Amino acid sequence: MDPYPEGQAAMMPEVxxxxxxxxxVHLIWTRSQSGPKVRRIVLPHDLPTSVAAFEDAPRxxxxxxxxxxxxxxxxxxxxxxxxxxxxxxxxxxxxxxLFQRRVLLAEFGIPRGYVSTYGRIARHLDTxxxxxxxxxxxxxxxxxxxxxxxxxxxxxxxxxxxQAGLAMxxxxxxxxxxxxxxxxxxxxxxxxx
Length: 193
What we know:
Blueprint: E1 14-18, E2 25-30, E3 37-42, H1 47-50, H2 66-78, H3 98-108, E4 116-117, H4 118-124, H5 131-139, E5 152-153, H6 166-175
Parallel strand pairs: 4-5
Antiparallel strand pairs: 1-2, 2-3
């Protein structure tokens, strides 16, 4: 079964397994006439449901150009706590519904060391009251790390959800300088939007 919407699966996806300090990250991408396109980034602990559709995809094939090599190096560096600016043009954002795409682009704009909340992003997108919809869009973020959905919290500072688990989300935030209270809530000092 094709994991892509009708008419979008022009090329067979390939999977690159990336060893990181958090565990394996899987980069699912395709070749296209306009260059490589990343279809999905699968974080550790998100494997059973997310990679199943790509079990037969070739793994670690020939990399098409420096952009994919740079993305792999950037993911490794990012997960070691370094400030990395990712190339959003590599992402196949056209596969996302319009509202999710708007949420992901807003999320991409949150700088390292800052956090936001689901409600703040909803208001930024002129959809006040859509905090739950923002949370749902981020829960299905096909490009975690590049689109840093770990930077969004609940309005009270609680962590919320994360595809790879709350421990990894908290560790990523700590690596970016976000502090936490004894009760596990983030200290909301540097807020975006």
